[in-house]
Amino acid sequence: MSVLFRAVLGFLLVKLTTLAMNLAWFPVLGKGRSASGQLGSPHDPGSPHGTVSLLVPMRDEAVTLMRFLPALLNQSGVTELIVLDDQSGDGSAALARSIMAGSAHARLVSGTPPPPGWVGKTWACEQLAAEASGELLVYCDADVLLAPGAIEAVLRAMAEQRADVFSVFPRQLTGSLGEALLTPLIEDVLLCFLPFRLLSVDVPAAATANGALLVFRRPALDQLAGFSSVRSEIVEDVALARRTRRAGLRLGLALGGDLVQTRMYTSYRQVVAGLGKGLLAVTGGSRWRLVAAAGWHLAAYTLPLVAASQRRRWLLPFGLGLAERLLVGLKCHPRAAWQAGLTPLSPIAFLPVAIQAMRRQQSWKGRSYP
Questions:
Q1: What is the pLDDT of residues 119-159, one digit of tens each?
Q2: In the chain, fewer beta carbons within 10 Å around the N or the C end?
Q3: For the domain that residue 191 is a member of, what is the CATH number?
């Protein structure tokens, strides 16, 4: 038990060290002074940012559009808004068309079925790139809520980091216990495993992105061969980030803060299906690695609470685990910092996600993926 105790303690201390660096370094949209001055309007020919296409792949989003689409329409600094209906079956197209009626810069296009070898979202994004005329292509999921001025803040941060490809990790909103147990772990993984400063040095493996809000300079997307280069990837955002670093292009990241937020799932069942469909790809396709990771997180975060009743020294890793989740919460979503108390339960709630990820066929929004 002493060996396991030392291993858990060392693991948590390493994560907290990385987290401490990112608490200081990792940028949050809208916080801090701009290093590049005021953002000009893309409608101005003299703007350093050029024309901006806001691109939204949409499939079966009728329940979210009334809240999210008006916020997209009201973004300043956008030259055109293009929503692609990816063969929705819930009336999303008609609803989007009615919401966008009267907006001269917005239009709806109908997507075609994905060709063999393409994942639905990558094909939708490829079609959007062909439709867009902007020098900057801003991909935004249909369930992302943008506050006023969010796109301008994104472009300002992208310019400050001199990025060719830029990604924002939205603040994770939750409405149920099942969501609170798992979706904030996306931010935890980011801040505890990727020191932000590695993005500016020659470490190609230091790469990640979030497809919820992903921005490309047009020449960079062309150099990456567009979304065709990741056509079969379920986790296309991380694959694009890795290709960006390997190509010698500059990758930029930021947290969404109050400006970019999302509620990815609305129930624990959706969390399991949504996270499970891409988890195996994140672990390199290894089921054994996935099983080992699930077991290790039980040892690191759940076992200390159980073992503390027998050996008081386990209170130390238990406290470190709570501190980790609390600090991530304070950085990303201060009003939800109470979720740190769920830390020992999260690895248990994760087990069905791991089981889902090991299935040979995944389903999402009516489509199946091997």
A1: 999 999 999 999 999 999 999 999 999 999 999 999 999 99
A2: C
A3: 3.90.550.10
Residues 100 and 216 in one domain: yes
Task: Indicate whether 56 and 92 sit together in one domain.
Answer: yes
**CB-CB neighbours of 240 under 10 Å:** 26
pLDDT digits (tens, 9 = 90+) for 334-366: 999 999 999 999 999 999 999 999 988 877 777
Would you list the DSSP string of 120-159? HHHHHHHHHHHH---SEEEEE-TTEEEPTTHHHHHHHHHH
| Residue percentage of the chain with pLDDT more than 90 | 84
For 236-268, write each residue's pLDDT tens digit.
999 999 999 999 999 999 999 999 999 999 999
State how far the Cα of 61 lies from the Cα of 85, in Å rounded to an integer: 10
Listed residue (212, 140, 153) closest to 32, CA to CA? 153
DSSP-assigned letters across all residues of 179-196 = HHHHTTHHHHHHHHH--G
Number of Cβ atoms within 10 Å of the Cβ of 280 = 22
Q: What number of other Cβ atoms are within 10 A of residue 242's Cβ?
A: 18
Residues in the chain: 370
